[in-house]
Amino acid sequence: MAPAKSSMKTIRWLISEVTVEPITFFNFLALAYYSVPMQVGIYRVICEEILPGVDCNRLSSNPEYEDKVQRATSIWAQVLIASYLLPALFSDTIMGAVGDMYGRQINILIGITGMMLSWYSTAVVLSYPGASLIIILAFNFVAGATGFLTIVAISAFAYLSDVEPDHENLTIRMVILSMINAVASVIGSLTAAVAIRSLSEAGVILISLILLAFAFFYTLLRIKQIPPTEMRRLVEQRNRKLKNVEPPGQQMELKKRHDEPTEAVVHAQNNGEKTTCLKQARLVMTTVKKLLLDVYRTYTKPRAGHKRMYVWIASLVYFLQVIVDMGLQQSVLSLYLLRRPFNWTPEEISVFRGISAAINAFGSVVGIVVLKKLLKCEDVTILIIALTSCIVDRIFTGFSTQNWMIYTSVTCGCLSTLLVPTMKSFTAKLVAHDEVGKIFTAFGLGSDLAHLLSAVLLNSIYTATVSFFPGSVFFFGASLSFIGLVLFCFVWFELKRDSSLTTRD
User: Fold this and answer.
1) Radius of gyration (Cα) for the chain, nearest Å?
2) Residues 344 and 492 reside in one and the same domain
3) What sequence ranges are listed for the domain Major facilitator superfamily (MFS) profile (predicted)?
4) Least CB-packed of 183, 216, 271, 301 within 10 Å?
């Protein structure tokens, strides 16, 4: 009986440790179901609008018609992506500050609600012939104001840091969360391919809405709307109870802390103010202003050696990499595979997304084990390898004319997934411990801006070159990654020189 009780206790403990993992799992699963039907559906709607009476499933037989639809779809992709990213630039910053003050649950719920509104509008437009894409545009703008998928991901990672005080355990849980997201993308893309074969585009999107609903209600029931400072106190209290080291009178002290007003309320009371909505809004804006000022100071303060320059280089390369990844993955790659000579079906695109996600996840695991654990490579060396992998991937894709070449390019680029986590790790080592959060905030703001820029820049290049060399946009992406490669080769040589000088002294 004792072993059985111990096993049940362990299971209950494991279940209690699960927090935001199901939220991100359902979100990435839903995104996999939504992406391909949305892209292919909009492609079809635009084709039917500008080429009435033409069979949009056989455009490859008429290159002039196909290029016309490709250009129009690329332009619409710019507009639709910008419609939610532009308001998201502001909402993510404000909502992030609100979450730091009042808790993460409401941000996650608002972000999921915005996604459901936007995706539902897409399903409606794809269901009714003649429905205007402006409907999606309007709902995307509203969804962007809610923070969309970005605020859900940011709040989920932040909540995890609130409930896990141990830094080593937090790193492990962050890695596990990233792997869960990768598994969700693989499962979602492969199962979505089956659904696309038997359901309409709107029907597949409906499945994604159901998955988002699961995430919404799980958040409502499982995630607590507690200010992060209070959450950390409660976690400390629980950990002390589990270790049986809680000193006498500690429970009363913790209860007293629990009953204390939050930081926002204290701020208002100290100034003799009532915590009205207007006062709280002012407090939020003050917090945002302070956050941006702290980010500015973090990037401009003098640092030992060349550390400040390295921080700027890392941030620039991260910015360029987000432009390449998001611009190519969100719309350009699907358009590239829909046209001649590939002429892929929606099912083939969905299967490709699933297989490429699996290859990238495998590359991440192998890369970490081999490069970091066995070969003991430094962060800069891993970044150089990851950037090289990315460049080979883009060049190979740009020259591809057959299906096997597309899959080969993904395999060549599997180590590029090491870039973002290693970049954050490298940058975190350059600054003080209390500045890490500010650096990551800058990365988040830069990521939103890069998403917006990539939607305009890469789609514009694809629109201009689709008739004579559609692969040129991938060469442009490779050139941006090459800039990053040159910069980090410079960093590598500088670090080696500094190390040799230190050893000599």
Assistant:
1) 25
2) yes
3) 25-496
4) 271
Parent domain of 491: 303-505
Read out DSSP for 199-267? S-HHHHHHHHHHHHHHHHHHHHHHS----HHHHHHHHHHHHHHHHT-PPTTHHHHHHHHHHSPPHHHHH
Structure-model confidence comparison of residues 243 and 260, the more confident one: 243
Report the C-alpha gap between 295 and 315 in whole angstroms.
12
CB 163 within 8 A of CB 231: yes
Same-domain status, 217 and 321: no
Tell me the pLDDT tens digit for each residue of 43-65.
999 999 999 989 888 888 899 99
**Would 366 be classed as within a structural domain?**
yes
Residue with tokens 């429905």: 131
- Calpha distance 97→291 (Å, rounded): 8
Per the CB < 8 A criterion, the answer to whether 235 and 163 are in contact is yes
Residue 446 tokens read as 């830069």
pLDDT tens string 258-294: 444 444 444 444 444 455 777 777 887 887 888 789 8
- 390 burial via Cβ count (<10 Å: 0-12, 13-18, 19+): buried
